[in-house]
Design brief:
- The protein has about 550 residues and is α/β, with parallel strands linked by helices.
- The chain has three domains: about 60 residues, no CATH class; about 190 residues, Aspartate Aminotransferase, domain 1, CATH 3.90.1150; about 240 residues, Aspartate Aminotransferase, domain 2 (3-Layer(aba) Sandwich), CATH 3.40.640.
- The chain is about 45% helix and about 10% strand.
- The strands form three sheets. It has a seven-stranded mixed beta sheet with strand order 3-9-8-7-6-4-5, sandwiched between helices. Strands 1-2-12 form a three-stranded mixed beta sheet.
- Helix 6 packs antiparallel against helix 16.
- The chain is elongated and about 110 Å long.
Length: about 550
């Protein structure tokens, strides 16, 4: 009669065999130098538990195989060994893809029209092809003309001699030096915030700061005219994004009411909620009603993210931005970022806020953790810029800011009071902005068959992007840019540099049309500000006034 074998019998037998094997193996292993240590570990680990011993042996075998196997092993099946001649033939036939998209011949004129400056980008420049003529620069964002300041140049040269031109690594990995720490303290003190974090690149700052605080399931209500950097940052954050009409506080409140009724009452856990806007909008040059934004923030328990790249160094008696312009404490703004490449004439960007916000970025913001720090000399340049803005200022307005505000108002008044331009262009910028954005009047756009917008909801560009068309060329867009370039060219002939802002049209969500950008800076004189208006006004009238569709088409054919 066959005897029944139970699981317990199998385990006991395996235990006995394993123990006998271990004793035999241990006898031989003790003869190897250091083997007694291994045997002692196995005996103490075994403790009458064969399953544990088998598991540890399996892990040991796996570890040995893992660390001794080649990382780039090739499966022999289907593998074809080529001769050297065949490899050479393949290399000769290989054509690498271009690093940049080739310029479309229909848009080649745009590349050819970019002027080449022969020296620093300051209040007066010399362009190639204009007989070495000194020209008024009404295209720069260097509003305080700090690029021509000899004191800053001298101090920056000293830093370059001592530290070189690179930071060598991210802030947390030997990138930050004492100069960077000083600048963070200088910026925090200047703006009256608890903390400041520096970033090496300005465009990536929003795309690093916002995703470090937002995740899937959080809520953002953003102005529909926010710049491209913010648009991409919100996409990266994967939060729920709702766009309100540009600077329309009623629409903002309507959306926040709807979100509270539909989501926030039953929300568990509580999501993070942000209002995202700009100080001076890069696309149009106006600013939001900050008092109303803060009122809605406190009413609906949101936080505020404010991009002040064009309002720092421009708005406020001391250039401290939109909150100073409205007389609001900086503490009311949760997160503020700004580029240092505009009014401060440096590079990179910074983010200011409370200490907790700053500390969180140092461990969770991708651009801070993995991108190289600012070059030390550019950090020093920004510290010096802050010093010069505060110079000779006690309780009143900074002399630099006073001059800039005077020129900004003068430029705005001269264009808005120009009756000859009323039906030719529209100005959406604020009087306090140092940049005027001049768009072709809607009546003329209609006469020339130009759309109200090339991007945004329902636009031709949006349709092309959604359908995945590789050709993003829009003839009407190219034609309107050519028309504006005719204005720019006439201004250049008269010694004034203005520009058409460049956009990545296929990437833009905001509704945009080509326009002219005219700016002022403190390196000019009152007479030169008047000259800017005179030259630009005449050029616009010569090119756009009384233009018919037939004349426009004739110009395009000549192009």
């Amino acid at each position: 009669m066959a005897q029944n074998i139970t699981i317990e019998d199998v385990i006991n037998t395996s235990h006995h065999i394993l123990e006998k094997s271990l004793v035999t193996a241990g006898t031989y292993m003790e003869k190897v130098p250091g083997g007694s240590i291994v045997v002692r570990y196995i005996k103490s680990s075994h403790r009458n538990d064969p399953i544990r011993t088998l598991l540890e042996l399996g892990l040991l075998v796996f570890a040995i195989r893992y660390f001794t196997t080649s990382r780039s092993s090739v499966k022999k099946k289907g593998f074809v060994k080529l001769t050297q001649a065949e490899v050479d033939d393949l290399c000769e036939d290989w054509e690498p893809e271009p690093l940049a998209v080739p310029v479309d011949e229909r848009e080649q004129w745009q590349l050819d029209s970019i002027p080449v400056n022969e020296a620093a980008i300051v209040a007066h420049v010399k362009l190639q092809g204009y007989d070495n003529k000194k020209m008024i620069n009404a295209a720069t964002l260097n509003f305080l003309d700090l690029g021509s300041n000899e004191y800053i140049k001298h101090e920056v040269q000293k830093v370059i001699r001592n530290t070189g031109v690179g930071a060598c690594g991210p802030p947390n990995f030997y990138g930050n030096q004492d100069i960077h720490i000083k600048l963070e303290n200088d910026l925090a003190q200047f703006f009256g915030s608890e903390g400041c974090v520096l970033y090496g690149q300005d465009f990536t700052t929003a795309g690093s700061v916002l995703p470090s605080f937002l995740k899937r399931g959080d809520f953002v209500v953003a102005d529909a005219n926010c710049n491209l950097a913010i648009q991409k940052a919100l996409q990266l954050s994967r939060a729920n994004v709702y766009w309100y009409k540009h600077n329309d506080m009623e629409d903002l409140e309507r959306i926040m009411f709807a979100l509270r009724d539909d989501f926030f009452k039953y929300e568990k856990p509580i999501s993070r909620k942000f209002i995202v806007t700009e100080g001076l909008f890069a696309n149009v040059g106006d600013y939001p009603d900050l008092n109303k934004v803060i009122q809605l923030k406190e009413k609906f328990k949101f936080r505020i993210f404010l991009d002040e790249s064009l309002s720092f160094g421009v708005l406020g008696k001391s250039g401290r931005g939109l909150p100073e312009h409205f007389g609001i404490p900086r503490s009311k703004i949760d997160i503020s970022i700004a580029s240092m490449a505009n009014a401060f004439n440096s590079s990179g960007a910074f983010c200011i806020g409370d200490k907790v916000m700053s500390y969180h970025q140092r461990i969770g913001s991708l651009a801070y953790c993995f991108s190289a720090s600012l070059p030390p000399y550019t950090a020093r340049a920004t510290s010096l810029a802050l010093e010069l803005i505060n110079k000779d200022r006690e309780y009143g307005e900074s002399p630099l800011m006073s001059k800039l505000h005077k020129y900004s108002g003068q430029l705005y008044d001269s264009f808005t009071n120009d009756k000859k331009l009323e039906k030719l262009v529209i100005i959406r910028s604020a009087r306090e902005s140092s940049v005027l954005h001049l768009q072709i009047h809607p009546d003329i756009r209609l006469r020339l068959g130009l759309p109200l917008s090339y991007t945004g909801s329902g636009s031709e560009m949006e349709k092309r992007v959604k359908k995945g068309y590789s050709d993003k060329f829009i003839e009407a867009l190219n034609n309107e840019q050519f028309l504006l370039q005719s204005v720019v060219n006439q201004c250049l002939k008269q010694g004034v540099v203005v520009m058409r802002p460049a956009y990545s049209w296929a990437q833009e969500i905001a509704p945009l049309v080509p326009h002219l950008r005219v700016s002022v800076n403190v390196g000019l004189s009152e007479k030169e500000v008047k000259e800017i208006h005179k030259v630009v006004s005449n050029a616009i009238q010569n090119v756009i006034k009384d233009i018919t569709l037939e004349e426009f088409e004739t110009q395009l054919e000549a192009k």
